[in-house]
Amino acid sequence: MEPKKDASLRSDAQRNRERILAVALTELTRCADAPLSGIARKACVGQGTFYRHFPTREALVLEVYRHEMRQVADSAAELLATHGPDRALREWMDRLARFAMTKAGLADAIRQATCHPDGPDRPAHTPVTEAAELLLRAGEKAGTVHPGVTADDFFLAIAGLWQLAAQDTPHSDWQPRAARLLDLVMDGLRAGDAGAER
User: Fold this and answer.
1) What is the value of pTM for the model shown?
2) SS3 190
3) Bigger pLDDT: 153 vs 2
4) Residue 176 backbone class (left: φ over 0; alpha: ψ -120 to 50; beta: rest)
């Protein structure tokens, strides 16, 4: 019976962690200086539980960012499992736009967390880059994306997302502008009309 108890404790700890991250994303996007005590309270966890998961503000901020990045990256394979490559890529681009807005909202908090010379580095974008490559290669194999388009090409093409994120706030009506930009990029990526799914 002891292993079941351990598994239950791990499950509770994971739920607490996920709840803290969800609340922290909302609160830190709203205000980079949001008090940790307020985040713990809104996540319905005690101070001890909170600090066991995230001993410093820096640890929390960077884990929120990494968590969001992983969610976006992991969704690429999920979308490919349920959609054609063309549709999967376009829907993933929408998720990437939401991630760009999250990053913009967290920008001050990330800057504060990484501004010290001996502080932590910003997380690398490797998972998101790998997800883009996965989708582009699937599209190329299906004949819906121009051959040879790299993840670097892709991110250069959608660089306007980050300018859009800098201009707007996560609470503004940025979605229509992002959708227009991403539709234009998607039209440029498509290999003719073959397999295009609108």
Assistant:
1) 0.78
2) strand
3) 153
4) alpha
